[in-house]
Amino acid sequence: DTGVSQNPRHKITKRGQNVTFRCDPISEHNRLYWYRQTLGQGPEFLTYFQNEAQLEKSRLLSDRFSAERPKGSFSTLEIQRTEQGDSAMYLCASSSADRGGWTQYFGPGTRLLVL
Amino acid sequence: AQKITQTQPGMFVQEKEAVTLDCTYDTSDQSYGLFWYKQPSSGEMIFLIYQGSYDEQNATEGRYSLNFQKARKSANLVISASQLGDSAMYFCAMREGIRDDKIIFGKGTRLHILP
To answer: Which of A42, A56, A89 sits opposite B101 (nearest CB)?
Structure first.
């Protein structure tokens, strides 16, 4: 069983550009989550999907952010008109019902640097 | 108010010694879950252990155990026989209620294992 994968692992972009990240969850996990982690902090929840439905979005997810999960498999997170404050690690996680209470398994993350 | 409090920003421990990482939480829900994750310098969040609020026994996973004291709202992680590879950031996290929409993380503790 392969783990959660994320691409790209690193992204450097100029302020104002759009970026898109991809997350492939563990196969058959029906829930997928996006988190953002800034330096020295724990991850903060952004949004999550159950299958293809986006069920919750954090206030952290401004209008410049959009996430999709077509067909309930992989997910993309797009940031439009990037700002320097968007520089962070973007983590994806997936889960399904198990004895561990819907334990979320994380991918390696995408490090974004906005210049 | 912080939901998850980790009071130790950093710890230094001699190899092979046991180490306890502190975590206190705040919730008014009767049903909740507590997690510990390890984050090495590579950035990936590695799931270590889970404790449900109704679990009567403390959770254990290999060298990891969770010292769950419900009345004190405490969920400390104990690592027995520490190894050099245990050097990493450790995050305590909580899922509130019976819904699994997000995990709330603490700010983490950086653990250094000394040879």
So the answer is: A56
Name the pLDDT band for B100 (thresholds 50, 70, 90).
low
Give the strand pairing for B4-5 and B24-25: antiparallel
A89: its two tokens? 């690690």
Residues of A with Cβ-Cβ distance to B95 under 8 angstroms: 101-102
Nearest by CB to residue A111, choosing from B43, B105, B106, is: B43
Own/partner pairs for A74-78, CB < 8 Å, 24+ apart?
A: A74/A22, A74/A23, A74/A24, A74/A25, A75/A22, A75/A23, A75/A25, A75/A32, A75/A34, A75/A49, A76/A20, A76/A21, A76/A22, A76/A23, A77/A20, A77/A21, A77/A23, A77/A34, A77/A46, A78/A18, A78/A19, A78/A20, A78/A21
The C-alpha of A21 sits at a distance from chain B's nearest C-alpha, in angstroms, of 16
Q: Say whether residue A31 is in contact with chain B using an 8 A CB cutoff.
A: yes
Rounded to 5 degrees, φ, ψ at A35 are -130, 160
In the predicted model, is pLDDT for residue B40 greater than 80? yes
Closest approach of chain B CAs to the CA of A38, in angstroms?
11
Please tell me the distance from the alpha carbon of residue A28 to that of residue A77, in angstroms, as a whole number.
20
In this predicted model, what pLDDT tens digit does every residue of A34-90 receive, in sequence order? 999 999 899 999 999 988 999 888 888 889 999 999 988 999 999 999 999 999 999
